[in-house]
């Protein structure tokens, strides 16, 4: 006696319903971004308020961070220029620029983990686009970067390194940084809201990345194979597209390609996660 297995195909309505759900999630996520961009003034006010509250009661405000950065750059510059046997005039501008830019990147990554959990009270009490909190984190760190630029200006002025037209090529790199920062906050902010153990892991990874990325050491100190391996370090590509033009270095096309590839991958992963997790963030925080 033969038996036949009958496969019952799911009704077309189920496929349509699933497609509509995916389309609806994407539409809501797009609306979140659009509404957040319209509230850029609110994001700016919140970012500025964060700075004022962080340094409330301080006479110098964020310039205390500028002073500490300047002292650290001066101390490390004298030490490592001696260890690496590099002239101070060549090494100190590189270190000052690298340290300030890396501080900005590291702060963005670290604070991205708590961009939603730190705003728990607001998220639970006020209906607001989540993208506003992403812009808030970017603006807050951009203000701090603006204060730390004083260190770069002072060091460059001491060694008479004046801006040149090629320095404008750093602007596209900064724009790419802003896009990556917004994508990263949406990704890490939601992910760390769901899994609170992720933030210490991210901080540890950033500490390792600091030593693996040419911040206090220069790329030309490596061998040819070591320089080739730097292409697999996303922090190097992103750092170099901004640092290189300011220092007057020629940026390889592969460096720009690598930075763009890493950025596209980050934005794609961030969007896929945000579309799926957007409706749950309020419950996670």
Essential attributes:
single chain, mainly alpha, disordered N terminus
Describe the fold and architecture.
By secondary structure, the protein is mostly helical. It contains twelve helices and no strands. The chain has one domain. The longest helix has 29 residues. The radius of gyration is 23 Å and the shape is globular. The N terminus is likely disordered.
Estimate nothing, just give the exact number of structural domains.
1
Task: Please provide the count of β strands.
Answer: 0
Secondary-structure content class: mainly alpha
Strand portion, in percent? under 5%
Helix amount, in percent?
Answer: over 70%
**Biggest sheet details:** none
């Amino acid at each position: 006696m033969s038996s036949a297995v009958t496969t019952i195909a799911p009704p077309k309505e189920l496929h349509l319903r699933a497609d509509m759900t995916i389309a609806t999630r994407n539409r809501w996520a797009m609306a979140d971004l659009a509404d957040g961009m319209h509230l850029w003034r609110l994001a700016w006010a919140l970012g500025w308020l964060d700075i004022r509250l962080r340094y409330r009661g301080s006479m110098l405000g964020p310039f205390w961070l500028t002073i500490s950065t300047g002292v650290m750059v001066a101390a490390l510059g004298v030490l490592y220029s001696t260890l690496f046997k590099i002239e101070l005039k060549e090494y100190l501008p590189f270190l000052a620029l690298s340290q300030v830019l890396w501080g900005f990147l590291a702060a963005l990554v670290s604070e991205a983990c708590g961009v939603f959990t730190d705003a728990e009270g607001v998220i639970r009490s006020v209906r607001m686009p989540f993208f506003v909190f992403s812009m808030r984190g970017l603006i807050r760190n951009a203000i701090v970067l603006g204060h730390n630029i004083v260190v770069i200006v002072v060091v460059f002025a001491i060694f008479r390194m004046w801006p040149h037209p090629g320095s404008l090529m750093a602007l596209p790199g900064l724009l790419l940084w802003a896009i990556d920062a917004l994508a990263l906050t949406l990704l890490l902010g939601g992910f760390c809201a769901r899994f609170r153990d992720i933030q210490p892991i991210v901080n540890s990874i950033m500490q390792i990345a600091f030593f693996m990325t040419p911040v206090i050491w220069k790329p030309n100190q490596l061998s040819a194979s070591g320089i080739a391996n730097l292409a697999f370090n996303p922090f190097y590509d992103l750092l170099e597209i901004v640092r290189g033009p300011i220092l007057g270095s020629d940026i390889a096309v592969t460096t720009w390609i690598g930075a763009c590839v890493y950025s596209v991958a980050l934005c794609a992963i961030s969007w896929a996660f945000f579309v799926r997790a957007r409706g749950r963030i309020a419950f996670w925080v």
